[in-house]
């Protein structure tokens, strides 16, 4: 309970149903290791990702009234990308509270970017389920608004967003990311993704998370297209 109180103080939110935050902090490696009916945070991550995207999109739409659609897309991508979410988790010290398997913990899971980013999305969902959309919105904007107002490096590039913007110029074109490879133990997974344009492979990439692999696949596609 003391650990929960510590985390709640950092989050700025007190849970009525502590099981939500407990699940949000439970990595799949831990759930698989204990095998006692523990749920991992993967489903919460899915929900939190959608809530995060909607809240950020709504905020920048209402507050960046002179920004064209392409710039809005890039700004949103910079606020919800793995790098940003990992930074938010590190600011909160989320890694100290994660429930990981022994193998994941020993291999540096508490500081792994993909795990921290996923946990942040799961925490968003936990707050939403426990306290509603307004509480989740306040939590999200507490982190994203200062980042939005901070100077960003001009070199920032979200390859998936850039590729999507190029392709969507033709409404008949369709992009899809397909998982074609997965290897390694739970604490050190490697994923391989292909990006398909109208069912044709135009890029391939790998990484320690699916999101990272998708970015690398999009990067290769852009390079092959001459961008």
From TrEMBL:
GO terms for biological process, alphabetical: mRNA processing; regulation of gene expression; rRNA processing; tRNA processing
Keyword Coiled coil: no
Residue ranges constituting the RNase III domain according to the UniProt record: 4-132
Protein localization: Cytoplasm
Active-site positions on this chain: 49, 121
Binding site for Mg(2+): 45, 118, 121
One cellular-component annotation, GO: cytoplasm
Coiled coil residues, start to end: none
Cofactor: Mg(2+)
Function description: Digests double-stranded RNA. Involved in the processing of primary rRNA transcript to yield the immediate precursors to the large and small rRNAs (23S and 16S). Processes some mRNAs, and tRNAs when they are encoded in the rRNA operon. Processes pre-crRNA and tracrRNA of type II CRISPR loci if present in the organism.
Assembly behavior: Homodimer.
Family in the record: Belongs to the ribonuclease III family.
Name the record gives this protein: Ribonuclease 3
Protein species of origin: Yeguia hominis
